[in-house]
Amino acid sequence: MIPCPPNGVLSRMTIPTPARPAARISFGIAMAVAALLCLQALPGMAEYTSVAVSNPYIRVVAGISGDAELGDARGGGSPEVGGKFAVGTSGGDPSSSLDNNSALLAGSDGESGSSLVPFGGSTYIVIDEETVILYGGEDGTWTKPPTLDPVTRVITDSFTPEEIPITISRTLKPLRDNVLVSFQITSDDLVAHTVGLVTVLDTEFGALEALPATGGPFYTTLTGSVSYERAFLGADVPDIIYAADRLPDYRIISQALLRRSDVTTPDVVQLVSLATATADPWGCEADPSVSLLTDSAMVLKWNEKALPAGGRLLPVSFYFGLGNACAEFSYPAVAALQTPFTLNYVRDIDDETGLVEDIGHIVPDPFVVYGYVYNLSPEVSLSGVQLQLTLPDGLEFATGESAIRSIGAIAPLQEGSVSWKVRATGLKTGPLPVTMSAVGSPMTGKAVTRTVDIPATETYLFRGGLGRWQMVTIPFETESTDLATALGLTTSQCPQSWLDSPLNFDDYGGTLSYHAFRWNPDGGGLSKYDRVTTVPLPGAAFWFRGCADLVLTMQGATPLVESDLQTRTIALRPGWNQIGNPWLYGVAWGRFRVLKDPAVGSVELKEAIRQRWVNGTLYWLNAETNDYDFSSAQSTVLQPWAGYWLRAYEPVTLIVPNVDTIGGAGVDISGGTGGGNNGGGGNGGDPPPPPLPPVPWSSSLMITD
Fold first, then answer.
1. CB hemisphere CA count around 147 (13 angstroms)
2. CA gap 676, 658 in Å, rounded
3. Peptide bond into 332 cis (omega under 30)
4. What 3-state DSSP class applies to 320?
């Protein structure tokens, strides 16, 4: 640790930014340089004391006492720093220089260059439903001021409110590119109390040398981007909340990890403007009409719980830091996996004709997956470190790549890294899981999984043969209305056994290359299926059985773009409906809305379920088991090309949300370069099983209506 000058006053210090992480990074020197405990005093500025620690990825600073003087660019003012903290980057994401030396929580005073000022993160203690105290503020005393352990590189402190013998202890623990924030509450009182916590995270984005952006959208996998105030309660609190300077093409992205085995999920999360958060941190309520793009904040609230006399509560903890990678943080090493969030669909320009090509493809091709192992120990080396990447169907290693990579030894406070080149085959779409496992000594085996969102293309694997039905929807508009023509399917692709079977003859003496049917709840008789010979609209699902298992590429097809408003709705009739996702990217079921009365407007899916307009359970056919899987979980992703059963109780309209991905994904057709039985959540009552796949040659169908 660099000592302060003898009088305890440091007039100016610039923390050197460590070099970008390479295959191995020396953390010891960088952390020693960045560990400070001193009095900040610049000419014309108020004075404050703080303690800080940094590594080549991230840094955190905790305020002890005093006021920070904000420059005119920050609107002036002198916020107290006692008990507050800030998180920023040093080197940031190793694959980009855009987030070097940047703020993730408010920490720029607008005047002093690269210094990180502790005022962006603040915590309030609520006692006995009425007393609200700022942690580290004037209504209490430090029993232990923020202190850096020179060995573990962890900041710890504890605070006691006035006149109430309760101690709140805090730990700020940097772990690679995230900080574990933990609180422990204990009582020395002879009477019981109720105690709750609320932490306000004032998100910022941008270089400290300049003026960081004070607002930006949030993102969750269930909601997509969140640009207006929004609240999450109880079971609706997301696993991860991302914050970015802009979406989908972010430059800086942070994350709060809220559902893990080593964190305490908040009871309430409010994504609000800073003005809303600071007006009443404990009682603030999101207003959906207020934008977050000017000044955004995240409010994490843990409701009051009974604290027995002389007892203690379970720890309250969460992670906050960079959102580029996912990681397993447990000692003695962090295993981290970094992939693109999403890949793109593009159509290139033909070099010879200068025209946009008719068929799209997925880019980047290949894309790069990074694996990291960060040795947390300041004393013990890791040895025999080896990483293995496991890919699902739909992803494959590029030519010459192998699944296993060896790092070998990793010295104390160093990091080892490897990379793989991976391709999307285009035959599987939606979020595909990539898993990295790490082994070494004395590290026990670790595994980290991250999903990569893969867009659909014109090419798809159609199942066929006797009994091989699958429910599909086509996420393209086509020049030809004839289904076989659009799919590029002819009888020349069919086996002789299919051609010889009278079951496959059409009404004119010819032979069919496929069978396709769509459920018609208004149909008469036992058979409520209509034969499909023309291309259904995107979002309309149907049963399909080709003459064999065939990989087909659609001809004359164009993907939908978001200006095609008329394609985003699906009319539902009472009874069973075959639906699908019309876009090239997967969409979470909970993001759909339902419209019953245009004069009133649409409602969220969960409200439509509560009103019993629709049943919340989706069914789809599992091609491997030839049986139905189902889910009522709002997080269920409707995949492109896949068809689903949904039961409606009223004639309503299902509104399909726009594609809302993270990481610059999109559909470029202008020539650019660019589970089963997993219930959860209410479903409006259990419906009967959906209709069985059709048997085209049977005169009667056993259908459950």
1. 10
2. 25
3. yes
4. strand
67, 79 Cβ separation under 8 angstroms: yes
Measured between alpha carbons, how far apart are the two ends of the chain, in Å? 73
**C-alpha–C-alpha distance, residues 220 and 366, integer Å:** 27
The answer to whether the beta carbons of residues 189 and 324 sit under 8 Å apart is no
Q: How far is CA 364 from the centre of its chain?
A: 20
- Tell me how far apart the alpha carbons of residues 647 and 705 are, in angstroms, rounded to a whole number: 10
Ranges assigned E (strand) in 22-165:
24-26, 36-40, 48-54, 58-66, 85-89, 102-105, 121-127, 131-134, 140-148, 155-161
Spatial contact of 381 and 345, defined as CB atoms under 8 Å apart:
no
- From the list 62, 65, 87, 91, the residue with the least C-alpha distance to 78 is 65
Exposed, middle or buried by CB within 10 Å (0-12, 13-18, 19+), for 688? Answer: exposed
Q: Quick check: helix, strand or coil at residue 26? A: strand
Residue ranges of E strands in 356-429: 361-363, 367-375, 382-390, 395-397, 404-410, 414-424
Handedness of CA 621, 627, 633, 637 (dihedral sign): negative
Q: Identify the H or E element spanning 299.
A: strand 296-307
SS3 sequence, 603-644?
EEHHHHHHCCCECCCEEEEECCCCEEEEECCCCCEECECEEE
List phi, psi (to 5°) of 504. Answer: -110, 15
Q: What residue has token string 């295959």?
A: 23
HSE-CB for 160 with a 13 A CA cutoff: 14
Backbone angles phi, psi at 235, to 5 degrees: -65, -15
How far apart are the C-alpha atoms of 362 and 276, rounded to whole Å?
42
Span 679-692, pLDDT tens digits: 333 444 444 556 65
What pLDDT digit, counting tens, does each position of 368-427 carry? 999 999 999 989 999 999 999 999 999 999 999 999 999 999 999 899 999 999 999 998
pLDDT in tens, 44-71: 445 889 999 999 899 999 999 998 877 6
Is the peptide bond preceding residue 442 cis, with omega within 30 degrees of 0? yes
DSSP per residue, 410-465: E-TTEEEEEEEEEEE-SSS-EEEEEEEEEEEESPPPEEEEEEEEE---SEEEE-BS
Contacts of 590 (CB under 8 A, 6+ apart): 222, 223, 604, 605, 606, 634, 635
Q: CA gyration radius for the chain?
A: 29
Distances (CA, A) of 445 to 178, 260, 335, 451, 467: 21, 18, 10, 20, 43
Name the residue among 167, 156, 195, 392 with its Cα closest to residue 301: 195
Cβ(575)–Cβ(648) below 8 Å: yes
Read off the tokens for 446.
């670790």
Instruction: Measure the CA–CA gap between 481 and 487, rounded to whole angstroms.
Output: 10
| CA atoms of 578 and 287, how far apart (whole Å) | 36
